[in-house]
Amino acid sequence: MTFHITKAVIPAAGLGTRFLPATKAMPKEMLPVVDKPAIQYVVEEAVGAGLTDVLMITGRNKNALENHFDRVGELEATLLQKGDIDRLKKVNYATDLAEVHYVRQGDPKGLGHAVLRAQMHVGNEPFAVLLGDDIIDSRDVLLARMIEEAGKRNASIVALLEVDPSVVHMYGVATVEKTDDDDVVKVTGLVEKPKREDAPSNYAIIGRYVLQPQVFDILAHTPPGKGGEIQLTDALQTLAANESLAGGVYGVVFRGRRYDTGDRLDYIKAIVQLAVDREDLGPDLRPWLKEFTATLE
């Protein structure tokens, strides 16, 4: 039977407190990265991997997300009347990008709880989870590779990134074993945000998952963990420890370009990195950056 995934789940219920006061009235997922909101990059990635059915897990004050992927008749009519066809195409592109659905998380009980809220929509089939804080460069393949491995191994797949040991406390970290594929490892254990001295490796989970539907039953019985929240990492640990349950857990090691928009400094870096590669901005931005950096001590 051909392995086929169509559904992507994007948790987007967080309060974005790191970016206050900017996120007091605007969802952090709508913060612009150059000229597109961060969430649009994530949806585009899902669609690029063939996932056209997108479920966003939202919370209060997230109406801007729904508005962004909906029609805006007055704006479209104004742009058409002005003959501003290029901007009209960009507006319509976001509207027609995917079939987007929404469900509220309700209580903020953690990432695992947010994923569990998707069970009714996903049903009994594999699905992908994409976190909005991580933007994967569209020139580098990750999600499609993960889907390929999920079908090949009939297992759950996480995206792993080798990070500096000094920052392992910021991630879920995996214990791994090599496989015959250079970019694939078997995950035998997972721990959420360990101390540096307790980390089993420097393989950190970044915000991309391809999960077997059995994870829902596990999440439903997973008690609160780190931070008093239901952790997706804890459920994946159960899957990794019981390979017969749903094929175990494997990791695709990503060595491409990733932009972290969940931290203020990294958010600024992401904007600069993406802008310098743009054909419409890069030619003017690169010389200015060189001049500007030359003035710094």
Automatic annotation (TrEMBL):
UniProt KW keywords: Nucleotidyltransferase, Transferase
Gene Ontology terms: biological process: UDP-alpha-D-glucose metabolic process
Enzyme Commission number(s) of this protein: 2.7.7.9
Record's catalysed reaction(s): alpha-D-glucose 1-phosphate + UTP + H(+) = UDP-alpha-D-glucose + diphosphate
Protein family per UniProt: Belongs to the UDPGP type 2 family.
Top-level class of the enzyme under EC nomenclature: transferase
Gene this protein is translated from: galU
GO molecular function: UTP:glucose-1-phosphate uridylyltransferase activity
SUPFAM superfamilies: Nucleotide-diphospho-sugar transferases
Keyword ATP-binding: no
Protein name (database record): UTP--glucose-1-phosphate uridylyltransferase
Sequence ranges assigned to domain Nucleotidyl transferase in this UniProt record: 7-273
Stored Gene3D superfamilies: Spore Coat Polysaccharide Biosynthesis Protein SpsA, Chain A (3.90.550.10)
